[in-house]
Description:
The structure is a homodimer. By secondary structure, chain A is of the alpha/beta class. Chain A has 2 domains: about 170 residues, Rossmann fold, CATH 3.40.50; about 200 residues, Dehydroquinate synthase-like - alpha domain (Dehydroquinate synthase-like, alpha domain). Chain A is about 50% helix and about 10% strand. The longest helix of chain A is centred in the middle third of the chain and has 23 residues.
Amino acid sequence: MAFKFNYYIPTRLFFGKGSLNRLQKAKLPGKKAMIVTGGTSTTKLGYVDRVVSLLKERDIETVVYNKVQPNPSHVQINEGAAIIRAEGCDFLVGIGGGSSIDSAKAMSMAATNEGDVWDYISGKARMKNPTLPVVAIPTTAGTGTEADQWFVVTNEETNEKIGWGGDKFYPVLSIVDPDLMMSVPPAYTAYQGMDAFYHAVEGYIAKVASPVSEMFSLKAIELIGQYLPTAVADGSNEEARAAMATASTLAGMVEALSSTTSEHAMEHALSAFHPNLTHGAGLIMISEEYHKLFAQNMPERYIEMAKVLGYPDSKDPMNFVKALSDLIDKTGTRDLKMSEFGIAENELEALADNALATGMAMFKADRIELTKEDVLGIYQRSYK
Amino acid sequence: MAFKFNYYIPTRLFFGKGSLNRLQKAKLPGKKAMIVTGGTSTTKLGYVDRVVSLLKERDIETVVYNKVQPNPSHVQINEGAAIIRAEGCDFLVGIGGGSSIDSAKAMSMAATNEGDVWDYISGKARMKNPTLPVVAIPTTAGTGTEADQWFVVTNEETNEKIGWGGDKFYPVLSIVDPDLMMSVPPAYTAYQGMDAFYHAVEGYIAKVASPVSEMFSLKAIELIGQYLPTAVADGSNEEARAAMATASTLAGMVEALSSTTSEHAMEHALSAFHPNLTHGAGLIMISEEYHKLFAQNMPERYIEMAKVLGYPDSKDPMNFVKALSDLIDKTGTRDLKMSEFGIAENELEALADNALATGMAMFKADRIELTKEDVLGIYQRSYK
């Protein structure tokens, strides 16, 4: 299977090794771009410079905002938006992991709609003006935000981490070049790859799954089961990196068409209270207990997922949980402990309350109705 | 599996039973629509009136053009375009089979670009002005044009039938409501369903197939194998109709992302010279000989397709040809004869020349290079 394709969903997606050079000819939505990035690896590895010079060749001016944090806060979104207005940028290029691309999406709204972006995200205010166009260049295989209309912003004052978005937030162009992902360290390759895995799985068990999102889910799950352990063990394996980049984008399309479930809401609560916790790591820590509960309640769906995870003749939904545990072992993430991220056992109830309140929409996507006790139980059984 | 989903590729797709009523609230691209249709069943069954009144409720004026023929000719496209200009319509609604929606797509260009539309399609002239937006409402399960950027126009003077298009020709909105397909007679249900089948198959064996188009292809092939015989035998079977509508749209997405192959070029030659020949029927008559040849040359791909057509453990590419023959029998299309459509055996060489000349792009999509002898041989062995 060739891991190289273009796709239009409605984002124009250039995919594959070397595709960053598409910036030389691709139709771009403006004349002055703000490049939104984290300022560490994307700068050190020269990716930002490459983008700047590729755009310069086309007489497109650039301003670089390189202060994006792992869990982007509304304060930084507002800061970036002010710079966009001051500099007169007419589009954004988000390059980096999910936080950089999500920040670009959030800034694309904040730049054209006055006030604190949090007012829009929290529902206090309504957008009046069109967003600026966003170009997405992911350098990790996990978020899938390059192929969906969602972004996540954190409010550190209120410990809220909210996923928000809508059709206006699909990037106009996304370039997925696995060459930019070769140097992601093993632990992050695992966290990000598992994030994509949970996107695909949650989209598959969500109420709103469709024949198309289900296809994307099963293909992404299959690719991740097959290639993530290799990508973690040998980051220089180009096939594994390209397969994971494909899986991540497919899982993003699942996000676009289906939904995350309460698993994501439960993780958002963890990393909202503990911003040092990586999203993917948070998901891994709660996922076995979470899916044990769900597998009992929708056996057919878990059997289908088990089939693409090494149990082709599976008739037992618990084979999925076995395959998941196996994947956690093979990706070297078995030893993650909530306690090591500063999460105290006596916090879990507050976290359950936060998850249910802040992530209500994701709980509504579940095919079964979780009680606070269910949520707390998953946290407690996952705690170490 | 729920056969009800929304999709954005970049067409906004409303899919499923009853979805025609989405016209009450869906974002529409203008204030005065020309409705493009064939004027027989879509009118008799009241679909055109329903669309007109649904639009009227929203103060959207309509003009009905109901003279679309099975193989739309450039003359009619020009005629429709003149009416659009005279009436000042700002968008089009194509409702009916592929010919109605394709005509709307062609008129969307002809209305804003002066002269004979054939000059643009044949490459004599270049489009200067933007196309008008098109809304597509398919009433058959076959063409898939509601989900792709292509259309086919015939020039009866020169016996050319050319597939043309580009990103500007994706419908802005497509509504796929299987309720509108319930009364398609058995023979046409078979021809149209098999057309979708060949779209999926050709897209799968084409050079430019991608991991995503392959997913769509295999799912469409599987659904058609499973449901087309039922849809033909019992048109009132809602599940079979919805499954076929899904398969047809998925096959359209394959068209959008991959390509047809020389099989379509060979059929276009037949129906260009014999406009009374239904496209799907033409494909059926040549497909067994065509795929026998290709199956030998790319066994892996044919084995994968055989697996979703009732040979799950297949190791023999010829199982696909068996499954195809089986499908031809089960859909009651075994007795189609070129001779009965007025095709004379001594024409076949001219048809081969026409296919190779007019359909060059489709031959280029093949993974093997067919000679004129190959093409002629397929026609001759298919002739009865």
